[in-house]
């Protein structure tokens, strides 16, 4: 088998599709020239005017590093905090209680990328350093799994110190506010998932119903969408395009991209009648092959953003105070005795209990809605599913009123039983057991 | 619900345990028979499938792997709901990871009662000389809570096959008991005849992506 280095540095064991036609290369060269000019005149009205359109077309890979740094204003925060990174790193190496987890995750992050392939390579060490320093810089977060993915991508383009500050901005700047994703109880995840479910209910009730039918909570397929902005969930070239736009437009992009992915693949997902198959499709298949050209996806992403904006569903609102850093960033807090000796918590904290209650409640609510839907559906005469082209959404009537095909209704009948017959009070969640079929295509075994 | 001839039993199994105790390694050893210390972090639960035959019955296991960092344990219910079996993994050289197993047992008992088959796995026996979790303690604890205890090494491929095989046998037994005693209740496992897949009724004639 050929070992090939892709343009983004990943090592592939198959021939890559040759997709860049000569005229496309020329266009790329022309675009780069324009970008160089624009970067030289960053803080001008002309740039402001052109930036949106050009970023949605994709930042030329050779200029990504400069552009990302400018979008995140890395230089500003770096110059405002001279020597800070080195201080944090020094303290981190002495005090951080997260080093074990960080080291173990560095060992597992992007190992198929040329930079991270060798254990203790320069970039692996840089990744360790950035995360170690950050765990001291932001003592409320410390280190949370997922952050190695963010820092890992940043370090593909930036040096250590820039990547540290870029990560700091992604977590604490209001435009991205990822802090709330990584703190105890993941409050921002809960809030964004609820919003995501609301969007599904409004625009794709059939798909939402399909997920609920198999007891598929959005966490099971979308955690990485929210935590690491689609890293390892869509092909890397597309992921970078989404990052370009995320860095420009912030949080709304994640919500809209989540919607776009499901919109583009709704038809295929609706055919999968098993939780495992659906999860495998969304997590594994779409990472390997998204099935649409990057440009087309971005076109739909932009349309989704508009569509959500019109429906006032583009943004779940600004972060409440508990999702933002409460403690001063960059101030060293000595870890308490418990975390120093690595003692684990006996019980869940109040925040964690809340999170648990939330996830359980969400499933119960979905089960209940499904039940109501079934009841009302049994009176409804159904016709056709009204779908063309694969990227259109359901008639945005509420799930209760939407039309369903007879075939669809007959398939759901196996799951009906499990919903109505659930009587186990200690495990309300189990009411949605629906491993209703077996397929023979070795799902997931290639993961 | 009875097992149709030629039908396949689907069981869901969830791997739980602290970070770095070797959950993913156990899974990879079992499914792909390889040990790889370069594997990916399990941030999001992922699963692998395994098909096997026991007592002439076709079984499909879907084994779910979970994130180990303590912060993620609050999301536990999402991962273990609907599971027929749970493998609680600890590292024999790390006492705290054994403590965490006890927490999981408590939680699973509370949430799922005896509906779930529990297995405790003391992993990394290749590091026997660094053992800190006493043998007797682990085994008697497992006994007390009605879980089977196994010693495993994903690295040396010890005990892994046996663990999954026994777990599957127990899940099958439990399932058969349940379907005998509660004929009318929809069981945790739906058995579907391979020859007539249910989904064909809605898929035929539509083109795939």
Task: Give a description of the structure.
By secondary structure, chain A is mainly α. Chain A has two domains: about 80-170, putative rabgap domain of human tbc1 domain family member 14 like domains (Helicase, Ruva Protein, domain 3), CATH 1.10.8.270; about 185-225 and about 250-445, no CATH class. Chain A has helices at about 20-40, 45-55, 65-70, 75-80, 85-95, 100-105, 120-135, 145-155, 160-170, 180, 185-205, 205-215, 220-230, 235-250, 250-270, 275-290, 295-310, 335-340, 350-375, 405-420, and strands at about 5, 10. The model of chain A is unreliable at about 380-445 (pLDDT under 50). With about 210 residues, chain B is α/β, with parallel strands linked by helices. Chain B has a single domain, classed as 3-Layer(aba) Sandwich (Rossmann fold). Chain B has six helices and seven strands, in the order βαββαβαβαβαβα. Chain B has helices at about 25-30, 75-80, 95-110, 135-145, 160-180, 200-205; strands at about 5-15, 45-55, 55-65, 85-90, 115-125, 150, 190-195. At the A-B interface, helix 6, helix 13, helix 15, helix 16 and helix 19 of A face strand 1, strand 2, helix 2, helix 3 and helix 6 of B. Chain A: This is Rab-GAP TBC domain-containing protein. Chain A: One of its GO terms (molecular function) is GTPase activator activity. Chain A: Pfam families: RabGAP-TBC (PF00566). Chain B: It is found in: Endomembrane system.
């Amino acid at each position: 088998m050929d070992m090939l280095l892709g343009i983004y540095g990943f090592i592939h064991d198959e021939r890559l599709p040759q997709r860049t036609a000569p005229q496309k290369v020329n266009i790329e060269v022309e675009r780069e020239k324009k970008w160089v000019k624009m970067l030289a005149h960053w803080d001008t009205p002309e740039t402001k005017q052109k930036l949106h359109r050009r970023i949605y077309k994709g930042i030329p890979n050779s200029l990504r590093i400069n552009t990302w740094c400018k979008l995140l204003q890395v230089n500003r925060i770096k110059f405002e905090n001279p020597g800070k990174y080195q201080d944090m790193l020094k303290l981190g190496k002495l005090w951080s209680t997260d080093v074990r987890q960080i080291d173990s995750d560095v060992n597992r992050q992007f190992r198929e990328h040329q930079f991270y392939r060798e254990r203790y390579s320069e970039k692996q060490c840089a990744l360790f350093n950035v995360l170690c320093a950050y765990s001291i810089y932001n003592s409320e977060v410390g280190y949370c799994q997922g952050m190695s993915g963010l820092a890992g991508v940043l370090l593909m383009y930036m040096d250590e110190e820039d990547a540290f500050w870029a990560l700091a901005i992604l977590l604490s700047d209001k435009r991205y506010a990822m802090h709330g994703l990584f703190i105890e109880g993941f409050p921002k995840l809960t809030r964004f998932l609820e919003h995501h479910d609301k969007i599904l209910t409004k625009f794709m009730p059939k798909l939402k119903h399909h997920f609920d039918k198999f007891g598929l909570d959005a966490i099971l397929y979308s955690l990485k969408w929210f935590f690491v902005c689609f890293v390892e969930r869509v092909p890397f070239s597309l992921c970078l395009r989404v990052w370009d736009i995320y860095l420009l437009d912030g949080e709304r992009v994640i919500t809209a991209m989540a919607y776009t992915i499901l919109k583009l693949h709704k038809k295929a997902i609706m055919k999968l009648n098993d939780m495992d198959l659906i999860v495998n499709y969304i997590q594994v298949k779409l990472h390997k092959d998204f099935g649409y050209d990057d440009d087309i996806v971005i076109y739909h992403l932009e349309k989704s953003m508009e569509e959500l904006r019109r429906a006032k569903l583009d943004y779940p609102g600004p972060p409440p105070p508990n999702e933002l850093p409460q403690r001063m960033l960059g101030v060293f807090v000595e870890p308490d005795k418990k975390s120093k000796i690595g003692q684990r918590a006996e019980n869940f904290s109040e925040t964690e209990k809340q999170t648990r209650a939330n996830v359980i409640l969400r499933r119960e609510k979905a089960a209940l809605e499904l039940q109501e839907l079934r009841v009302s559906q049994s009176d409804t005469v159904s016709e056709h599913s009204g779908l063309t082209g694969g990227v259109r959404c359901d008639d945005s009537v509420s799930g209760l009123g939407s039309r369903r095909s007879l075939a669809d209704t007959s398939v759901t009948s196996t799951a009906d039983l499990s919903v109505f017959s659930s009587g186990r009070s200690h495990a309300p969640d189990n009411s949605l057991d629906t491993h209703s079929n077996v397929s023979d295509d070795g799902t997931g075994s290639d993961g | 619900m009875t097992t149709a001839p030629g039908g396949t039993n689907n069981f869901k199994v969830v791997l739980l345990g602290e970070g770095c105790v070797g959950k993913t390694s156990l899974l990879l050893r079992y499914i792909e028979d390889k040990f790889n210390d370069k594997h990916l972090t399990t941030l999001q639960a992922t699963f692998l499938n395994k098909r096997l035959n026991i007592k002439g019955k076709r079984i499909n296991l879907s084994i779910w792997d979970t994130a180990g960092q303590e912060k993620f344990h609050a999301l536990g219910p999402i991962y273990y709901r609907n599971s027929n079996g749970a493998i609680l993994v600890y590292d024999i050289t790390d006492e705290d990871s054994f403590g965490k197993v006890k927490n999981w047992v408590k939680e699973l008992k509370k949430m799922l009662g005896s509906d779930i088959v529990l297995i405790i796995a003391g992993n990394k026996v290749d590091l026997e000389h660094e053992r800190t979790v006493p043998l007797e303690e682990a085994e008697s604890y497992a006994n007390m809570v009605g879980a089977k205890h196994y010693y495993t090494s994903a690295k040396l491929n010890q005990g892994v096959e046996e663990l999954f095989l026994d777990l599957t046998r127990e899940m099958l037994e439990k399932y058969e008991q349940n379907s005998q005693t509660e004929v009318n209740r929809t069981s945790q496992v739906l058995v579907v005849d391979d020859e007539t897949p249910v989904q064909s009724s809605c898929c035929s004639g539509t083109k795939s992506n």
